[in-house]
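Hello Y.,

Per our agreement to keep a running log of every chain we model this quarter, I'm adding this entry. I've kept the format consistent with earlier entries: sequence first, then predicted structure.
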Amino acid sequence: MIRSMKFGLAYLSVVAIVLVVNNCNSPQTPESAPTETIVAKDSAVVIAEIPPIIAPVHIPLTVVVDNLASPTAPVVVGVYKSTGDFPTKEGRFKVYNLIPNGNKLSADITDLAYGEYALAIYQDINSNNEMDKNLIGFPKERYAFSNNFQVSVKLPEYAQCSFKYDQDHHSTTMHLIKSMKLNK
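Predicted structure for the entry above:
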């Protein structure tokens, strides 16, 4: 009797593992995923509760930009992954041209994996895909860095602007800094 029970428990364990593995290999929605499976061996019937296996939801990165100079000029968002060439044009991991619809921009970036990033953005008033600068190199167009880093004398470092993007941290708000003008 005890030997028969050990065999039965071992058999049920194998069947449960096979069922879980089979459920992992097929895509399922919450509506189609099985919640009950009946396993029969000899004359014994066991009802095993198997919760649906659902992939975690990937939440997009929401970028909110305020203090726009124009309600329609594109905002160029440069995404950086490492300390490399931040914040140069060549060092960008990805670039997005986002079109505002009013005095504030809110956009979801859906194709970034969770991780650590830094953003450098500017509003391209003349739509030439360049950050326009004056004679001494100060930006003519409004710009911002993630963490709302305020530029004083030199450009920020990646570590000063980097942020964690994950399921708990998936939104960043940036305030465009007015362009610097020389006094004449």
